[in-house]
Amino acid sequence: MVAVLLPVAGILASFVGGGRAAARIMLLAAPLVIVIAGAIAIQIGYCGQPLVYTVAAIPPPLGIALRADGLSAIMMLTTAAIMPAAALYARAAFEPPNGISDSRESLTFWIMLQAIQAALTLIFVGSDMFNLYVALELLTFAAVPLVCIDGRAETMTAALRYLLFALAGSICYLLGTALLYGEFGTLDMALLAQRMRPAPAVWLASGLMTAGLLAKTALLPLHLWLPPAHANAPAAASAVLSGLVVKGSFFIILRLWFDILPILPAQSVDVVLGLLGSTAVIVGSALALRQARLKLLIAYSTVAQIGYLFLVFPLASGANAGASLGWRGGIMQILAHAFAKAAMFLSAGVLAQALGHDRIAKFEGAGRALPLTFFTLALAGLSLVGLPPSGGFSAKWLMLQAAIASGQWLWSIPILAGGVMAAGYMFRILTPAFADGTAAIVNSPDRTQGAVALGLALVAIALGFVPPAFFDFLEIGRTAAALVAK
Amino acid sequence: MTMNSLLLVASLAIPFAWLAAFALPNLRGRALSTLWLAPAPALAAGLVGLGTGPPIEWTASSTGPSLSLDRSGALLLVSAALLWMMVSLPLFRSERPNDRMGLCWLMTMVGNLGVFVAGDLVSFYCLYALASIPAFGLFAFSPDGQSRRAGAVYMAFTILGEAVLLLAFAMLVASEPHGSLRIHDVMASLAASPWRGAVLALVIAGFGMKIGTVPFNGWMPLTYTASPTAVAMVLSGAGVNAGVIGLLRFLPLGDALPVAGSALMGLGFVTAFYGVLVGLTQRQPSTVLAYSSISQMGLIAAACGAALGQPDLLNSDAIAFYAANHLFVKAALFLTVSLWAIPGINSSRFHFVLAGALALGLAGLPPTGGYLAKLALKPGFASGVTASLATLSSIGSALLMTHFVMCLEGTRATEAAPAGLLRNWLAVAAGAMLVPWALYGLAGEAMSKAFGLSNLVDATWPVAVGLALAFVRRRAHWSLPDWPEGDTIGLWEAGFGRVMRGGPPVERLEARSRQWPASSLALVIIALVIAGASALGH
The complex's ipTM? Predict the structure, then answer.
């Protein structure tokens, strides 16, 4: 409960304190947030079962419960790690100008950042579908202003696109929720899972909710808003948007299909989602190969990496051998991509500031001028390509094993092809950068910013070394139904 | 932990310590100048591992990383460690390449030494990637267009190979019922696996990209020609042997699979003769050497095929010994090319004779180490057809290597090798011919076999025939049509270009899908399809 309230308290305090104070509040609260997320994780690991808190001690269906399982705890920790990283990075950029205690930009930035944190936490522990809807809306409304924070017309258009399409998604989701409520009289996830039975309303609801969430996750072909939004936002915002925000709605899709609807015989849904994901991997990577600007390249890489996440549906559905491997691979992909992509966007920010542009064709020799930044990009790229040792490698390795063990070897084609294509676009960035030549440096890079990006990339690499116990922890609280038969 | 496993751990940990030292700016200079010492524990471990007896093992935990060194691995480890030490010493003590080169060199070396001792799939995959990918930085950053092209082609085949092997390894793991990642365990359970055929094909393709079997051979001439001498020495010698150990470890050599064995043998011989034929069309000595490597690796693939078909005739130690010999000779030959670039050398008859003897070692000329290597493979090519093919490949090698020596006269000045190596060319060349004898003895082979008269005659006449053919060819001015360096690579590049032309249409399609009407329509369709799909179960 405290986990949810802390960022909210931070927001309120920020309104009072103004831009400069907001930054301080966010950064001061960060260790506290990590400690809380860590405490929740330890408690879950210690008890071996999810942590449940019923608000005001009124149990569902009347009251609202918050429930944190192993996956929630890991996602909260990830958020708690990436958020302060983005905040540290952004401190220099969004410090109000000297002599002024406050500015619109800085206040907006810090408040929205904390709102995202609150919304994500709520999504990770929410166990009520309407509650999740509220969190999802908060997430969208907090993310949109981050895109257009500098107020340029270009970013306003991008933000507006994002807002409108996300709204369409919300409507779909809300409609689905209403259908479920009409059918079962509750929106508590545990109760829904118990009462779940095949019915036309359920089918329609599952379609609407999934499609709505896909729109918010920007799964190709519903990605119209992502490239402009992620490529035009300030680097710190892009890191959060690409690394975390899209994972929020994806998390709800996971909850929906693995926790609420596991009794539906969903093989064909799994295949549909898997095919959409594969298409996103291939098309997104192909587009990334063709971008002239680094930030757009990274944004399209996100489109491709989101595609990977959806392979978890065919690979981890309960009926298959190797489902557990598929599940672990899918979660590892979420985590590895979150850290690697955040590191890449932050590096791209450092780079754009130092070089005054982010055109890949003009990177010749830039590696000598910005060794740390390109080293960070290389590490993050290692994980994206799926080369060992890295979280990305673990993810691909587990997913491939799941594909083979479950006899669905066809899914190995997009998994491998995406890796090879990622190698292609990393090659495009890194080869000219490390070649001989001299690139002109406009501004000398900020050391803290570089270090923050490097830290995130190192986490993405370190994820390749997690012990098996980590994966057992992820299984805590997966509903029995999801594990036994889907 | 026994002394031997401690040594095994040190053989990998000590080079990693150098890598760590490189990361610290104030230790960097010292790390590079003493870099040649880093492979010393690997050399020691390899020498211990050469002795007869069970493999040396080390395991962190039941599912964690493990190391293992059998005699085949030891042969390749000793030879690789010697080569890395020999080249690193003069290169980093006197030449002082830049840090980019130093880092890439160090990483490639660590990975290369590691693949011979890796005991589980994941360690092997990691070290194999480390041995392959940073090697890009050793040759691809020269400003000329040729080395850029070579780098891109090298990287493409490397990444493709990694992807293919990852799939093969996933299949191997899925076949192992107890969840062990040890190479020994997964290979033991492959016989009962439904994916055995697929694993075989993927392993042959994946490591084939490393050793340059047809049609994956094109990167080799480009890379070796673009590389500075020191780099060409280690890549052509130790680098390709990472692929050889891969074949030896991941082909089920104990299972007796005649069909797969014959297929691999066929592929190997095709590669062996193809390398000779295309090599004869080349004029640049280092390119000729690259084609000779393709041909030699083809023969190794053929030998692997023989061992796969009839495990009782040929074991992996013999193949490893052949590869170790190739390492020494090929490295010495690349140094020879560099020596000929120095004005005045090419007039010396003595140098020519020694270079000739060295080169013809690859065709099995007694008493060079190459003779022993051919002798070791001989049992594998026992039947009439395979024996003739093996003899024919020796003749071909002799022809190609004589062509190489003839090309030496026209060597263009290339980037010079480290002076320390050039000064000691005599020692290097003599060592390349004699060290295999020492390995042969250490590996416990019977010396008496090597001095049998019939064996000596059998080995000598194909060399003589090849030599004579080369001279006849020169006298009669038989010339083959000019082939572009890298031959098949043109086809690959054309194919790649065609794939890339698919880019703009995909881009247009994607741009259209990002329009509002298309996206909204897609949203509705996806909602309906998923609703329909979830109803479909009933």
Answer: 0.89
